[in-house]
Amino acid sequence: MATTTAPTAPVLAKLPSSTSETEALNEKPDYFLSQNPPEVERLTRQHEVIKDHMGGKLVLAPVDLSTPGLRILDSATADGLWLRDIQPFCHPSAYFTGTDIVPSYFPDAVPARTTLVVQSITAPYPQAWHASFDLINQRLALPGCGAYPMPLAVRSLVSLLKPGGWIQLVEADHSGPASDGVAMRDAFRLIKELFKGMGVEDGYARQLRGWLESEGLQDVGQTILDVRLGKTNAKEDMAVKGVSAFTLATEGLVRAARGQLCACWFPRLFL
């Protein structure tokens, strides 16, 4: 496979400090890879590669994870790996919530002080959640909005933050360097065309900062990461995992493009 880089953009923002558990079962949108047996494994490899490119960090926001009683939400959590990864760095009294639309991903054994909930990013959140979380993380989920306005999905997430809380969003912009091979350029073009058919606007990742600022958040920061796939990644294990995750995702995209699926939902593409 041709090697490439795929920029992702962690965007961090803080709810101003002065801004003045119910399980929600929503109608489940279709996620075209939900019945794919290796999907959780693919998401695990994706998680490891992105984490590696973030310098081994799970959170770039300046949050003191040792603070007692923190409430942390991971939106589009899949099997809750991000939550399990961050838990050892948190105070024992911290509480963790993960949401996803595919409950079959939820593990049978859930860690202590953790709740996994069926919840779509386009559906109303439980009223009890509003202004209740100190940290919210969401990664590669906004394309799942389809025709639903992404800024409204971001606004709903922001409404769940406590005053002074932080939100971290990570999205891909589906581009690569000019040195990419033909196959990789075709793959990115396919992704953009499929997203366009779903009502997803091209370049949405670079609008995250503006959306957060329009919600009145402070200290909004943005970091652009060039995620190295294949031989451009000097770490052999990460090179293999990156290619594997990208290939599995692309196979699903190709099936969708051929019309073998009547509906598609793309919450987590490794690009």
Helical stretch tally:
6
Q: Give the overall shape, derived from the CA principal axes.
A: globular
Uncertain runs are 1-7, 18-29, 32-37, 260-271
SS-derived structural category: alpha/beta
Overview of this protein structure:
- This protein has 271 residues and is an alpha/beta fold.
- 28% of the residues lie in helices and 21% in strands.
- The chain has 6 helices and 8 strands.
- Strands 1, 2, 3, 4, 5, 6, 7 and 8 form an 8-stranded mixed sheet that branches.
- The chain is globular and about 50 Å long.
- The two termini are 14 Å apart.
- The N terminus and C terminus are likely disordered.
How does the SSE layout of this entry go?
Blueprint: E1 4-14, H1 39-53, E2 71-75, H2 81-86, E3 95-100, E4 114-118, E5 133-139, H3 150-158, E6 161-172, H4 182-197, H5 208-214, E7 218-222, E8 225-229, H6 236-257
Parallel strand pairs: 2-3, 2-5, 3-4, 5-6
Antiparallel strand pairs: 1-6, 1-7, 1-8
